[in-house]
Specification:
This protein is an alpha+beta fold and 624 residues long. Helices cover 38% and strands 21% of the residues. The chain is built from 19 helices and 17 strands. Helix 10 runs antiparallel to helix 11 and helix 17 crosses helix 18.
Length: 624
């Protein structure tokens, strides 16, 4: 069974169980400075898991592409990818453990066709410190499920993963209790890190057994579900949100309990074909086949390089097809890093020529079923990636020239960092060239490089310190003025340039404002002047700024209030109106803060208008 078939079967199965299919969220979330990318299936659903009602009801499901760059260094092994697709279903105060466990097992065995004898599960062992009991309820449900399938299911109390590495598993054991490092879910991680006021709870993970011969005991210890070896692979996680952390740090049970399930499409597909290597599934193998053809080398002898290229270019395509362009900041830098790492590994394969034009169409074909509302720029994605490919090959050449200028006196770690930071010449390539040319390297080059890197990170951290949700640095007087001025700027752009313009992001400090907005052209000097004049006219008119709460549908359809992501708003929204109620200058859904009248803002001045990414422009402005 291929990945596309499993995705379709999952959604159809969940619909039969009373769920509504919801569209996936973009990889780059609008106006969310807390994270670079959508990193899980539940991330876009968090407001509803925290209590906001969802318009589609209490039973939801989807298939959500996700990107986790924290796994980037692990790519190269058989199962880690930065890009993955998460099959998800949720119960918002409806069904709970018994229905969820039975349904997921039914899907794996009857729909996907997995052997129940190769399925293993884990549950939470409890926590005496906080008075949270062992999740015997989930374990007993699992025992009944396995018994019905004719599978012996003894329970084992492992505790920590380290204990499991020493102990292993014993005959008949199928259900394993672990501590909060393995089987507790909260936004903060372990049970001690659970944020105050947050929902949380035990989870029950599901693993597939690829066989005893896959475990390298000398390297990973004895096999058990939570071990690092290749025998067991997690294919799904069921989070049972049944607790809330109180303000005093204790935990109490929620009145309405939620289920948050996520299953990796790539991993379930790998289990369905009996391969512990996810790069052999239908989403990735065609890329590997093309790399073998281009390089003239085999996958079996070049697994690390080909896995990294396949994974990174898949991520690069998804990001660029959502309108993101490579840059040196935030998400754009992450995209650039994926492309460059892929090109470097292609050089290792002997692919010295441009090759993305041969790979990207293969990836695009696998994502034809994703809606245009997500892949908004799929037609231009290849051109964006090819441009970056050519630029980076030029960067590599410049970096080699600079390295050769410095090599006569040997190289220090600080100089290696300069080559990477200033010329984009990656450290691993510098070191490889140093050894290739037998260039002298300072004794403490690694420490020198790390020190320079740490200093740069500290500078970057200081620059972004204190950023609030919505792009505000703080809630002080000037930041509040700039926030209000941002509303006026957006309204002026919609009035004078294009009524379809919407906010794509913002960053506001006490010294200036920045607004990103969608448009397909650079603003002309006349357009910029007209926009600036309009904002100043509204400021001079000293318009009132008022707010009121409305039903979301009324705010959207009757008031025609502007909003960037209606699907994620709660049923009640706060709407800020600037100017006359019947013919306002601006009417927008927002959480504040704002000034009470525009006359206090001062003179509005556009300092710069530039490209932010493909199809997105950026205006930087000040109040004088």
């Amino acid at each position: 069974m291929n990945a596309s078939e499993i995705r379709t079967k999952f959604l159809e199965f969940q619909v039969k169980k009373g769920h509504k299919v919801i569209p996936p969220a973009p990889l780059v979330l609008e106006n969310d400075p807390t994270t670079l990318f959508t990193g899980s299936g539940m991330q876009p659903l968090l407001p509803y898991l925290l209590g906001a009602p969802h318009k589609e009801g209490k039973r939801l499901c989807d298939s959500q592409p996700a990107l986790r760059l924290q796994d980037i260094e692990d790519v190269g092994d058989p199962r880690h990818t930065t890009v993955f697709e998460m099959l998800g279903n949720w119960s918002l105060g409806d069904y709970f453990k018994e229905e969820q466990i039975n349904n997921f097992f039914e899907f794996l065995v009857k729909e996907v066709g997995l052997d129940p004898n190769k399925i293993y599960v884990t549950c939470f062992i409890g926590d005496e410190k906080y008075g949270i009991p062992k999740d015997e309820e989930a374990a007993k449900i699992w025992q009944k499920v396995f018994e019905k399938a004719g599978v012996e299911a003894k329970i084992a109390e492992i505790g920590s993963a380290e204990n499991g590495d020493k102990r292993g598993i014993r005959p008949g054991e199928r259900i394993f209790f672990y501590d909060d490092k393995e089987n507790w879910w909260s936004r903060g991680g372990g049970i001690d890190s659970t944020p105050l006021g947050d929902p949380c709870g035990p989870d029950s993970e599901v693993f597939y057994d690829f066989g005893e011969d896959k475990q390298d005991e000398a390297r990973y210890g004895k096999a058990h579900p939570a071990s690092d070896g290749a025998r067991f692979m997690e294919i799904g996680n069921q989070v049972f949100m049944q607790y809330k952390r109180n303000d005093d740090g204790s935990f109490s049970e929620l009145e309405k309990k939620n289920v948050d399930f996520g299953g990796g499409l790539e991993r379930i597909t790998a289990a369905s074909i009996g391969s512990f290597d996810v790069f052999k599934i239908s989403l990735l193998k065609p890329i590997i086949d093309k790399l073998e053809e281009i390089s003239g080398k085999s996958y079996d002898n070049n697994t690390d390089e080909m896995r990294i290229i396949a994974d990174h270019l898949r991520g690069a395509y998804l990001l660029s097809s959502q309108g993101l362009a490579p840059s040196n900041k935030a998400q754009g830098y992450a995209l650039r890093r994926l492309i460059r790492r892929a090109i470097l590994r292609a050089l290792d394969l002997g692919i010295a020529q441009d090759f993305l034009a041969e790979i990207i169409p293969i990836i695009a074909k696998e994502y034809e079923s994703l809606p245009d509302t997500i892949l908004t720029s799929r037609e231009t994605a290849l051109a964006v990636l090819e441009k970056e490919e050519k630029a980076f090959r030029s960067t590599l050449n410049r970096g080699l020239k600079e390295l050769n200028k410095l090599k006569d006196n040997g190289l220090t770690g600080k100089e290696l960092f300069m080559l990477q930071d200033t010329y984009g010449f990656p450290l691993e390539l510098s070191v490889e060239e140093v050894y290739h040319q037998n260039i002298k390297l300072s004794e403490n080059w690694r420490e020198e490089f790390d020190k320079a890197l740490a200093e740069q990170r500290e500078r970057s951290k200081t620059a972004s310190k204190g950023m609030f949700k919505g792009g505000l640095e703080d809630h002080g007087e000037m930041s509040t003025k700039y926030h209000t001025a941002t509303h006026l700027l957006l309204a002026a752009l919609q009035k004078l340039v294009d009524r379809n313009i919407s906010q794509q992001g913002s960053n506001i400090t006490s010294e200036r404002m920045r607004l990103d907005f969608n448009i397909d052209h650079k603003l002309s000097p006349e357009e910029k002047q007209a926009v600036e004049d309009q904002v100043n006219a509204w400021i001079a008119a000293d318009l009132p700024v008022v707010f009121a709460e409305y039903d979301k549908e009324y705010a959207k359809n009757d008031l025609k209030a502007h909003g960037s992501f209606w699907d994620r708003y709660p049923d009640k929204v706060k709407v800020y109106t600037i100017g006359d109620e019947k013919a306002p200058a601006s009417r927008e859904v927002c959480g504040g803060p704002h000034v009470e009248h525009t006359g206090v803002l001062g003179k509005f001045k556009i300092q710069k208008e530039e490209s932010s990414s493909a199809g997105v422009r950026r205006i930087k402005a000040i109040l004088e």
